[in-house]
Design a protein that fits this description.
By secondary structure, the chain is mainly alpha-helical. The chain folds into 5 domains: about 180 residues, no CATH class; about 100 residues, no CATH class; about 55 residues, no CATH class; about 60 residues, no CATH class; about 60 residues, no CATH class. Helix content is about 50%, strand content about 5%. It is built from 26 helices and 7 strands. The strands form 3 sheets. It has a 3-stranded antiparallel sheet with strand order 1-4-5. A hairpin with a 3-residue loop joins strand 2 and strand 3. The longest helix has 19 residues. It is flat and about 90 Å long. The C terminus is likely disordered.
Length: about 500
């Protein structure tokens, strides 16, 4: 496509593609995809689009827009990038350059986040007036699509757009002022204003340092420690929760799907102050930072976290010459006394036991491992909790009774091995332990109904119904009642029916 329009400041790439369709008079969504991307299967995505390399190529003559510039300045990628590992961030950028297939939303945690992405169009009428005045046209700003914050920082609540993006997966809808509703999304609170201001800083950060999970863990522990919310190495989660609720209010937290309860063990607030094993959303991070560090710039906070050296215990090998022999002998003697009295596991829980173990682990590791290996507690073989022999006899008797009860019944489903097991209590346990139940296994091999046997039983049932209703035994009628056909019969069932004379009826010859 020639003369592809360059994006306006803070304009979504989605909006730029939509404007390109207007400029070139393209009505068909598929034709627009062909012209811009050369691919008719591209999905029109608002927040984290893909195939951005095609757009950068169309704008190459401007020499102003690299792929990274378009991603950081014209998508919502900056809301998620600072809080994921560098490898994930780089991989997401590579996917956004080409075909992503929805993987970017999974990698950045958007799909599973408590903070859901915005799926409806919304806009600010006063911003639209300013756009028309400055640029002569209106467009979709990325500020209008920040999750959990449907507000304009300058003018307040956003207004709902009549059309929805989900009306067509491949249609890039341009902003048309006449389609703007008079209903606002919601009213704006002072808390929203604070969060929106912080989010604007996040969108405009020049660069993001790479922060590891260990650095995030250490940062939040230090944050709690600096404000007096620790006791030793333990964090006082209840006090932090109380502070957050006082600062923001329960109603506001609930409206943002972030309300936690004191007895909730795995709440997001507790998890973010514990060891980090996953990424958290921008909204969760900013909520805490605006509570503890409201005057700090986000850029300074990121730089501080990036410089943190996480504490880690590294076991080093010490030579004999580096050790104080008197301390070594004393610690060995104390540990020997504890182990002989309490055992290895319990010794570490005794008074000074943990400190003695730690000293030996760091300074006399080889001796500690050798000594402990000779004093391991030998556990007696535990008695099996289940008498499988008794259960085997019990269950096989029940199966025999079930077989006797239904052996002459034509109305049951196929009496397969699984059907027999489903008639028993604890059927899941039995099916997973058939190797311990030889009698049950032999019963199932002997009495489980094959497909051929099941088909013949259905044919007999159908013939019986026709006979007792004084109707002629036509083959087509028997098959219809039995839910069968000649094509579905097994070879063995067809052979038996042929020998029995079923296939010699007049209607079969026709």
């Amino acid at each position: 496509m020639l003369n592809f329009p360059p994006p306006h400041p803070d304009e979504l790439l989605y909006s730029t593609v939509a404007r390109a369709g207007i400029y070139h008079g393209i009505i068909s969504p598929k034709q627009l995809l062909d012209e811009v991307f050369g691919n008719r299967s591209v999905i029109a995505t608002l927040n984290l689009p893909s195939h951005i390399a095609h757009i950068a190529d169309l704008l190459r003559n401007t020499q102003q827009y690299s792929v990274e510039d378009l991603i950081y300045r014209h998508t919502l990628f900056p809301l998620y990038a600072p809080f994921v590992q560098k490898a994930i961030r780089d991989k997401a950028i590579e996917l956004m350059k080409g075909k992503a297939g929805g993987a970017v939303h999974m990698m950045l945690g958007v799909a599973a986040s408590r903070i859901k992405a915005i799926h409806n169009f919304q806009a600010c009428p006063k911003c639209i007036e300013d756009q028309i005045e400055h640029y002569g046209e209106s467009f979709w700003k990325r500020d209008w699509f920040i999750p959990n914050l449907p507000f304009c920082l300058k003018h307040g609540p956003l207004f709902i757009y009549k059309e929805k993006p989900i009306d067509s997966r491949h249609h890039f809808l341009p902003l048309i002022e006449s389609n703007l509703s008079l209903d606002s999304v919601s009213s704006m609170t002072p808390q929203d204003s604070l969060m929106l201001s912080a989010t604007q800083q996040l969108l405009k950060l020049p660069s993001y340092p790479s922060i590891s999970f260990d650095q995030w863990t250490q940062f939040y522990w230090e944050l709690a420690h600096d404000f007096g919310y620790t006791r030793g190495k333990h964090i006082q989660h209840a006090q932090i929760l109380k502070l957050i609720q006082q600062r923001w209010g329960k109603r506001y937290l609930q409206s943002k799907q972030l309300l936690c309860h004191e007895n909730e063990e795995n709440s997001w607030l507790k998890s973010i102050f514990r060891k980090h094993r996953k990424s958290f959303s921008f909204f969760e991070h900013l909520l805490i930072w605006q509570t503890f560090l409201p005057q700090e710039k986000l850029e300074d906070i990121f730089q501080h976290i990036h410089k943190i050296q996480p504490f880690s215990v590294v076991k080093t090998k010490s030579s004999e010459n580096d050790l104080d022999i008197s301390n070594q002998a004393e610690y060995r003697k104390l540990w020997q006394q504890l182990v002989r009295k309490y055992g290895i596991q319990s010794s570490r829980s005794q008074e000074n036991g943990g400190a003695i173990y730690t000293w030996l682990y760091r300074h006399d590791y080889s001796w500690l491992i050798q000594f402990n290996s000779k004093h391991q507690m030998v556990r007696s073989a535990s008695q099996p909790r289940v008498d499988w022999h008794q259960r085997d006899h019990k269950y096989v008797r029940e199966l025999i009774n079930i077989n006797q009860k239904f052996k002459d019944s034509f109305h049951t489903p196929r009496q397969s091995a699984n059907w027999y097991l489903m008639q028993l209590p604890e059927h899941s346990t039995i099916s997973h332990n058939l190797n311990r139940l030889p009698l049950v296994s032999k019963f199932l091999i002997r009495y489980a109904e094959s497909i051929t046997e099941y088909q013949l039983r259905r044919v007999c049932l159908a013939a019986e119904l026709l006979f007792f209703s004084h109707q002629e035994l036509h083959l087509w009628q028997i098959f219809r009642l039995a839910g069968l056909s000649k094509e579905r019969l097994t070879l063995e069932a067809a052979k038996i029916l042929k020998l029995s004379g079923f296939f010699n009826t007049d209607d079969d010859k026709n």
